[in-house]
Amino acid sequence: MSTTANNKAGFGSALWDYLTTVDHKKIAILYLVAGMFFFILGGLQAMLIRIQLISPDNEFISAQFYNEVLTMHGTTMIFLAAMPLLFALMNAVLPLQIGARDVAFPFINALGFWLFFFGGIFLNVSWFTGGAPDVGWTAYAPLSLFSEGHGVDYYAIGLQISGIGTLIGGINFIVTVVNMRAPGMTYMRMPLFTWTAFIASVLILFAFPALTVGLFLLTFDRLFGAHFFNPDMGGNVIIWEHLFWIFGHPEVYILILPAFGVFSEVIPTFAKKRLFGYSSMVFATVLIAFLGFMVWAHHMFTVGLGPIANSIFAVATMAIAVPTGIKIFNWLFTLWGGSIRMTSPMVFALGFIPTFTIGGMTGVMLASSAADYQYHDSYFVVAHFHYVIVGGVVLGIFAGLIYWWPKMFGTMLNEKLNHWFFWLFFFGFHLTFFFQHFLGLMGMPRRYWKFLPDQGLDLFNLISTIGAFFMAIGTIVFLYNVVVTQMKNVKVGPDPWDARTLEWAIASPPPFYNFKQLPLVRGLDPLWIEKMENNGRMQPAEPLGDVHMPNNSFVPFVMSLGLFIAGFGVMYQGGMWILAGIGFAITAGSLLYRSIKDDLGYHIHKEDFDKEEGDGSNG
Amino acid sequence: MADDMLKSGNLPEHPERATLEGSNKFMGFWFFLGGETVLFASLFGTFLALRNSNAEGPAREDVFGLGLVFIMTIILLTSSLTSVYAMYHMRNHSFKKMQLWLGVTVALGLAFLGFEIYEFVHYVHDYEFGFRTSAFGSAFYTLVGFHGAHVAFGLLWFITLMIRNNKRGLNLYNAPKFYIASLYWHFIDVVWVFIFTVVYLMGMV
Question: Which of A29, A262, B121, B142 is the most exposed, fewest CB within 10 Å of its CB?
Fold first, then answer.
């Protein structure tokens, strides 16, 4: 109903619809658009870095600008591209996979998006007001205290705002999974993407507050004269590193676990087998998450925590290779003997397995704390984390986007172009980053603006830059594919991939209420069970009845806008305090409004369903 | 059905968890408190790392007086008890008594906040111990100040709920709101117990 009506409506009402929506499927599209925007921005920054490093002693961009670009590349890609793109997939798919009509907190879901969005915009305003943050995405103290201008303040306040959005988004998904599963959808029947998104949300809940505190301390030191990181007044710079990595290490599992989940959906579908070792996959996911909290100090081996601390963290880090290895082998065993279809999501999955394994192996190398003194802050580390983040998370995001594109938009991306995208991107990726391992072992430090000629670094840097261009061309092919596909707008059926899980049981894109009647889940891969044992349609678990839906709301947008405005006041102070007053008043006012205004939602009456025959939903 | 949510008669046994929205809120808020625990744990960790870093400024034993903090602790613990009474009356569906005990809770919370403001002013004026005096000062005021801000927010929350619902009584829509506000209040109280122990007792004894 909502989708067909919008096609006829004007641009203004469509815009208003998206500004006020609380529908998880539309919020997914918002996350997707914003995430892709920041992904392209971060990609352009990466290209600037690689062009600067194409030859020794290059003067393509200035040292200061290089520092800003490098900082913003990391910050943007982690917080503003990878996280929201994963949130896009979670929003689009998770409620459908568990047979829910909506998430637990639709309003908070929207609020989470707008906070992330305004935080990201806030961070990027810095480009136009005297310079972006220039201290690396980790913003180590005391460098972050010495940085002049307001770049680091934009970093601290921008990430603070978007971090709140991520936190409440995580809580929303946790409660959705715990409370909103359809009849018969027990925990051990949940699709693995739902499992990994659930566990990643738990990690968000317990990791982000540490960043919140770290950013508060940084803000207090820089803007309000506190002395947390100032040794002259008794402060301690290591506190920042601990807080940052207590957040930062779980963060990489927040990113990779949902990507694991995507591949655990894609591989069974296109191998036409149920996932091998489902329960061990769940167990491995939980174990990775648990261990992920005990390894943060492996980022700090060279700080001087002492041999005992280093050894404990080294062993804990290496232990993570075990559950990860379980996952790798389970994927391989799922492929074994399957009737494999080489669709593009499957090709992404097959490219992911060896790539991520290489990243995992260098991870174990880095975990050896004694050897890490050699690798630390070198291009070896850069190569390692790009192998796991690009080779794992980014491949996972694109595999998921292509796989669920029909569910999100009702259209199929062109398979031929998808394959072109994969091969350009994959080839370019290995060209870019494989050689950085050697650059690192040869001693090239990360984050440097220049390298000198005739030190044996020229050739590999050149190759690396050429690879980056292949990745860029691949991404352009993908964007072109998106535009062409949406222009043609050829609709596909509910289940174009012949898949196994619940989301494929309803129309593409689903009606705004998702399930007319909640489905009865009879086992793992519920749709596949119905395909094998029945007529391929889900059995309803309840008679046709009224469906409760939440009201749209503009409040999330306003609430987030208030913090955005207040951020400038807190930062510039003086006469700008007025902005802080206005901004906080807007946010507090909208909180108050939300609290005192009853918002009961509305009901779709069962009689009204009859008017929408042929929507493809079951029941 | 929507109207039923706002009717105040015939409530089920646990009005705060009787609806799906209510049970979602109930559970979501517990998870939120889990996140808050990490937030305060990070602040406690920072404080413990910096509690002896008073540079040239006053140290813990110079400024802290246990008498005042003891009174504050008693007040806040009592307010937690009165909010339990309020929730007890909510479960018995006696709205008036719930409002009364929430009123007592708010009064005690205000008293606590008043004492805390007095404490801070006292430190700054009589001991020249401020936020910028030393790393210890920054850590102290940040930890205790975060708690104080939570108390202030909790008070505004209670007051808003009490005024908003004063005329219409308890129903399935506002019962979860009252309940999670009281959960929040207990959490604040627990945090204070740790502050009393870690900041004040460990600083004096």
Answer: B121
| Residue A416: Cβ within 10 Å count | 10
Query: Interface pTM (ipTM) of the complex?
Result: 0.95
CB pairs under 8 A between A and B: 123
Q: How far is A105 from chain B (nearest CA, A)?
A: 8
Q: What is the CATH number of domain A2-553+599-612?
A: 1.20.210.10
pLDDT tens by residue, chain B, 205 residues: 455 778 777 788 888 888 899 999 999 999 999 999 999 999 999 999 999 999 889 998 889 988 999 999 999 999 999 999 999 999 998 999 999 999 999 999 999 999 999 999 999 999 999 999 999 999 999 999 999 999 999 999 999 999 999 998 899 999 999 999 999 999 999 999 999 999 999 877 6
Length of chain B: 205
Give the global pTM. Answer: 0.95
The chain B residues in contact with chain A (CB within 8 A) are: 1-2, 5-6, 20, 23-24, 27-28, 31-32, 34-36, 38-39, 42-43, 45-46, 49-50, 53-55, 131-132, 134-139, 142, 157, 160-161, 164, 173, 177
Cα distances from A332 to residues A338, A397, A398, A402, in angstroms, run 10, 20, 20, 21
How far is A187 from A470, CA to CA, in rounded Å?
42
Find residues 500-559 of chain A whose CB sits inside 8 Å of chain B.
546, 548
Chain A residues within an 8 Å CB radius of B39: 209-210, 212-213
Query: What's the rounded Cα separation, in Å, for the pair A272 and A382?
Result: 37
**A206 to B177: CB separation less than 8 angstroms, yes or no:** no
How far apart are alpha carbons B15 and B47 in whole angstroms?
40
The residue in chain B having the minimum alpha-carbon distance to the alpha carbon of residue A217 is B142
3-state secondary structure string across A219-261:
HHHHHHCCCCCCHHHCCCCHHHHHHHHHHHHHHHHHHHHHHHH
User: Is A270:A344 a contact under the CB 8 Å cutoff?
Assistant: no
Of residues A156, A25, A153, A43, the one with CA closest to residue A96: A25
Which numeric CATH code is attached to B15-204? 1.20.120.80
What are the structural domain ranges in chain A?
2-553+599-612
Distance (Å) from the C-alpha of residue A269 to the closest C-alpha of chain B?
33
